[in-house]
Amino acid sequence: MTATSQLAQLVAACHWIGQQGWAPATGGNMSVRAGEGFCLLSESGKDKGSLTSDDFIEVEIASGQAPSGRRPSAETGLHTLIYRLFPEAGAVLHTHSVNSTVLSRLEKSALLRIQGYEMQKSLSGQQSHLDTVEIALFDNDQDIAALATRIETWAKQRSLRYGFLLRGHGLTCWGKDVQEARRHLEGLEFLFNCEMQRRLLERV
Ligand SMILES: [Zn+2]
After folding, report:
1. Which end of the chain has fewer CB atoms within 10 angstroms, the N or the C?
2. How far is the CA of 72 from the centre of ligand 1 (A)?
3. pLDDT per residue over 4-39, tens digit each?
4. Residue 89 Cα to ligand 1 middle (Å)
């Protein structure tokens, strides 16, 4: 698949994310791997529901710098981290949904454990509701470089798969291409919604 068609799919995914209300008030950022050593990342301060392909900036994965001098998202360092950690990752989606924001505060431990849901199978490689999906949770930080270091350390010592939650902030997830990243986002958001409602009703 060409970088151009992946960018077109990413723009469509951004419009869908905007419609879901998962990137309010210009929040969130999205990217796609584009060629050797680069990704295309959404420009800071733009409404994600009405982005066009011109709103994506070429960023060097190794340095996090944009050769054009335009300003990519404040959270660029988290996108480039994922591309560096996982050579198979082709797209990264970062959203600020209510469910990911609240659930990440309710869960006090370093892992959100999801078990018992058929929709776990929306995540690549998951085959049964009897298995447990573990989503890592990190305390939010305005220092993105420090946050990226903490996430990198975790990834090297433990497992980091599908995505991670930033406490009181949102979800970052990825896939081998835009289509898979989008399915992971939708699946995780569904599971977070179920888990929120279960905790509310069971008062756990
Ligand atoms: Zn964010």
Report:
1. C
2. 13
3. 899 999 999 999 999 999 999 988 999 999 988 999
4. 19
At the second CATH level, the architecture of 3-202 is 3-Layer(aba) Sandwich (3.40)
Distance 166 CA to ligand 1 centre (A): 8
Within 8 A by CB and 6+ apart from 91, the residues are: 6, 10, 30, 31, 32, 33, 174, 175, 176, 177, 178, 180, 181, 182
Strands 163-166 and 56-60: unpaired
Domain residue extents for the chain: 3-202
For residue 128, the CA-to-ligand 1 centroid distance in Å is: 31
44-48, 66-70, 99-103 — most confident range:
99-103
